[in-house]
Specification:
binds 1,3-dihydroxyacetonephosphate; 339 residues; alpha/beta; 13 helices; binds glyceraldehyde-3-phosphate; binds zinc ion
């Protein structure tokens, strides 16, 4: 089937009351892991690429790998999404390349670190919405900023300094006309989110519930949603890694979010951990090996396992054949009629 828009997928998820994982990719093996997990669990998928991923793969390589996936898994509804677009131009280039959805992260300035003003965020997001919707492409925006700077997206600190203000969230949605809203509730990108299992003092699920009450029809997005499972940390450390003790976002908290308007859940770090653990294991146990396939295959399988598990836990499993893909042209009409 043709590529689908994020808007269609999230509208379907809202109807069905489930969440959809958005998994980051940088190379062929990660794309294959996601598609195999989707086939295994009969899930629709969101495949997302950051600016870093686009630079790493030189854009066209990654885009054509995604198209190959779409061709080889015709039964899987697939969204191509830009993760953390940092400017109008980055979003524009993703739209021109063929992405069906973009995130304009105007909560930070273009450096990906400095918190922006509300006015800046509204202005840049609204301009991206205008362009994207004229092409039928979906837009995710963000209000409030995540903590941490581990992977270059975040305002630093603990994640509690810039949590989302519900009044601003309402005004932001009204003024921008976006399709999906990322909110900040205390999470950070990367492995080091919390120093112990998070409770309500550091992971603000109450705030999420309040925002959902105020914006009941807006699709909410949770970033920094890796669970950083202990077993994946242990494999890395067992085979020579040096991860410090850390906690991520428990899956049950994400499931509570899904009951309260969360439709897109961003996961990257858990897959990075799974891949690295599998590769370290091969290197440690069979140091005589040097064919990259000998470690890339188990790495791909380890990522597939994590992704399939999340697809089941988020509820998207079994929903691949619920709907017919609509085209970008359909969404051009949709946005004209829903201004
Ligand atoms: O939010 C960030 C994602 O984990 C992607 O990270 O910019 O290192 O590709 P990246
Ligand atoms: P994690 O680092 O928790 O996997 O978050 C990924 C993310 O939010 C990508 O935008
Ligand atoms: Zn993110």
């Amino acid at each position: 089937m043709p590529l689908v828009t994020l808007r269609q997928l999230l509208d379907e998820a809202a109807k069905g009351g489930y969440g959809v994982g958005a998994f980051n990719v940088n190379n062929m093996e990660q794309i294959q892991a996601i598609m195999e997990a989707a086939r295994e669990t009969k899930s629709p998928v969101i495949v997302q690429a950051s600016r870093g991923a686009r630079a790493y793969s030189n854009d066209n390589f990654l885009y054509h790998l995604m198209l190959a996936a779409n061709e080889l898994y015709p039964e899987i509804p697939m969204v191509l999404h830009l993760d953390h677009g940092n400017s109008f131009d980055t979003c524009k280039s993703a739209i021109e390349l063929g992405f069906t959805s973009v995130m304009m992260d105007g909560s930070l300035m273009a450096d990906g670190k400095t918190p922006s003003t509300f006015e800046y965020n509204v202005d840049v997001t609204r301009r991206v919405v205008e362009l994207a919707h004229s092409k039928g492409v979906t837009v995710e925006g963000e209000i409030g900023t995540l903590g941490g700077i581990e992977d270059g997206h975040g305002a630093g600190g603990t994640g509690l300094e810039h949590v989302t203000d519900p009044d601003q969230a309402v005004e932001f949605v009204e003024k921008t006309g976006l399709d999906a809203l990322a909110i900040a509730i205390g999470t950070s990108h990367g492995a080091y989110k919390f120093t112990k299992k998070p409770d309500g003092s550091v992971l603000k699920m109450d705030l999420l519930i309040e925002i959902h009450k105020r914006l009941p029809t807006t699709h909410l997005v949770m970033h920094g949603s890796s669970s950083v499972p202990k077993d994946l940390q242990d494999i890395i450390n067992k085979y020579g890694g040096k991860l410090k003790e850390t906690w991520g976002v428990p899956v049950e908290e994400i499931q509570l979010g899904i009951k309260n308007g969360v439709r897109k859940i961003n996961v990257d770090t858990d897959n990075r951990l799974a891949i690295t653990g599998a590769i370290r294991k091969v290197f440690a146990e069979t140091p005589e090996k040097f064919d990259p396939r000998d470690y890339n295959k188990p790495a791909r399988a380890a990522m597939q396992k994590v992704v399939a598990q999340r697809m089941t836990q988020f509820g998207q499993a079994g929903h691949a054949s619920d709907f017919q893909a609509k085209s970008l042209a359909d969404y051009v009409e949709f946005y004209k009629n829903n201004k």
